[in-house]
Amino acid sequence: MKYHVDEKGYYGEFGGAFIPEMLYPNVEELRQKYIEIMYEESFQKEFHQLLKDYVGRPSPLYYAKRLSEKHGAKIYLKREDLNHTGAHKVNNTIGQILMAKRLGKNRIIAETGAGQHGVATATVCALMGIKCVVYMGEIDIARQAPNVARMKMLGAEVRPALSGSKTLKDATNEAIRDWINNPVDTHYIIGSAIGPHPYPDMVTRFQSIISEEIKWQLKEKEGKENPDYVIACIGGGSNAAGTYYHFLDDMEVGIIAVEAAGKGIDSGESAATSALGKVGIIHGCKTMLMQTNDGQITEPYSISAGLDYPGVGPMHSHLYKSGRAEFYSATDEEAMRSGLELSKLEGIIPAIESAHALAIFEHKKFNPDDVLVISLSGRGDKDLQTYIDYFKLA
Ligand SMILES: *Cc1c(COP(=O)(O)O)cnc(C)c1O
Fold first, then answer.
1. Given the DSSP bridges, would you call strands 285-289 and 278-282 parallel, antiparallel or unpaired?
2. Which terminus of the chain is more solvent-facing, meaning fewer CB atoms within 10 Å of its CB: N or C?
3. E strand or H helix at 285
4. Would you say residue 286 has pLDDT above 90?
5. From the candidates 111, 213, 259, 346, which is the catalytic residue?
6. pLDDT at 394 (0 to 100)
7. Is 87 in the pocket of ligand 1 (CB under 6 A)?
8. Does the domain made of 57-87+209-391 have the CATH classification 3.40.50.150?
């Protein structure tokens, strides 16, 4: 079984590039050049220099002693929460801004839901002095005011998406419309391991720095490169794809994905795509997605904005379908409890997305000598108000 993308842009039966004809030249140019550009010596040098000096990599691999004692396994946390801007998303936006420059583009567009990807994109555009337009649903603009302010401070223009449910999927539609109208000068920075080929593979390769570091860090700490399990939460699947990447073909490494069950898989308010989804096409790729019987995309729900996406990237659909990865889903309640537990046991307040990965202990028992690496995809500062309201902390 092959778990990496094939020449046609597929992971098993999933992936591909289902795009309007007007976008074909843009996507095709990227497809032809992305590997060559990405592995040029000058690109690698600039990418790694920025990851080091600007993002603060390598991110630590932290042995969580008290959490380990509590759950009876050797638990390491990959600290993506310590990156500049507070999550893993910047690994991808740094890579893509360098790609855009090599392609001669001088204008960036992006979509954002909660604003995390918008902030990560606005950040690298400020860094490079490149014009940035971020599309965001009108409802999300209202409920994510601090991130809207951040993007504006960083010099980005935030354009409201006024159609449909006025959330992420509508913002994505607006971004695609913009790209169709500005095919020559504009690069579209997609924020997860989703979209038409080559995006899922390109984003995954930029995020694969996570598992590249885990290998040598674990070697230093445990005397071996491979853990027994790698564990990550999945929205679109970019932190998970980066965490799994260098372990995909090592069958002794178990792969665990945790999705957001929201208020419960059967509650009608969920984002557990593997449990509820069917094969369909979303944002230019064939993958598992939540949809009605006539193929309309279902509005997802999760307490964590970053997992509130109705699909998963094509790599993850394949990992699920082929049985290579175990999929679980954690409810809002389980995630919030796990987020509080990490705060109390380790002094680390996680993003609520990352807290879903930690909620694996509500679902699976491990052996005491199992070595686990959990992707701590982001920090909880942005979620403080949600924690306050949920636990009545104020
Ligand atoms: C956006 C986000 C996620 C979900 O995105 P993926 O592409 O699935 O990784 C997870 N954690 C944090 C902290 C995020 O900001």
1. antiparallel
2. C
3. strand 285-289
4. yes
5. 111
6. 85
7. yes
8. no
Residues in the chain: 394
Which 8-state DSSP code applies to residue 184? Answer: T
**Residue 111 designated active-site:** yes
Higher pLDDT, 283 or 124: 124
Catalytic, out of 59, 68, 74, 89: 89
Active-site residue flag, 377 = yes
What does the alpha-carbon distance between residue 19 and residue 14 come to, in Å, rounded to a whole number?
15
Percent of the chain residues past pLDDT 90, beyond the cut: 90
* pLDDT tens per residue across span 267-283: 999 999 989 999 999 99
Does 57-87+209-391 match 17-50+89-203 at the fold level? yes
Task: Note the pTM of the prediction, 2 decimals.
Answer: 0.97
- According to CATH, the topology of domain 17-50+89-203 is Rossmann fold (3.40.50)
**Which residue in the block uniquely carries the two structure tokens 């939540």?**
290
CB 38 within 8 A of CB 335: no
Q: Which amino acid is at 60?
A: P
> From the CA of 375, how far away is ligand 1's center (Å)?
10
